[in-house]
Design brief:
alpha+beta; globular
């Protein structure tokens, strides 16, 4: 069958799977940040295959009645492959869900993207970000360890809300 005549199936979001992943990511983040109401920052390290550590900071930069927004960013040594992890995540406490707002500083991605598009986002780019956060948090919980750096709101550099 020729490429031009093949029928493309329209992408459909599996809301049940996405909601389950967002709920599970919320619980994963609570394991990493158990005192998110009283702490602004937590540092986590992962042992890299080269014997070096990869260090990450979980930094809460916005608190509201029903939501908390945090940045997860790698700091310290530049990774070997030149790409460091960076997520912006919003926790919805009433729904007990976590949603990725940005990945690698890319924001404003629709739940469904026409493909091809100018930025070459996949049709389900935002959904992929949420599942990738889940895989990454699972790896952090299995292999990460706290570096002991925890900052309360009154002592955090730059301050938080």
């Amino acid at each position: 069958m020729a490429l031009g005549t093949a029928q493309r199936q329209r992408y459909h979001i599996d809301l049940q799977a996405l909601h389950a992943e967002c709920e599970t990511n919320y619980l994963r983040l609570l394991k990493i940040l158990p005192d998110f109401n009283t702490e602004d920052s937590r540092h986590l390290a992962l042992q890299a295959g080269t014997g070096q550590e990869r260090r990450f900071q979980f930094f809460i930069f916005e608190r509201a009645r029903y939501t908390t927004t945090l940045e997860i960013a790698e700091y310290g040594l530049r990774p070997q492959w030149g790409l460091s992890a960076s997520f912006s995540v919003r926790l919805y406490h009433d729904a007990r869900m976590a949603e990725v707002l940005a990945f690698q500083r890319q924001r404003n991605v629709d739940a469904f993207n026409q493909y091809p598009n100018a930025r070459m986002y996949q049709p389900d780019e935002k959904t992929q970000w949420n599942f990738m956060l889940g895989e990454w948090l699972t790896h952090c919980l299995a292999h990460g360890y706290s570096t002991g750096k925890v900052f309360a709101p009154s002592t955090a550099a730059g301050g938080c809300i």
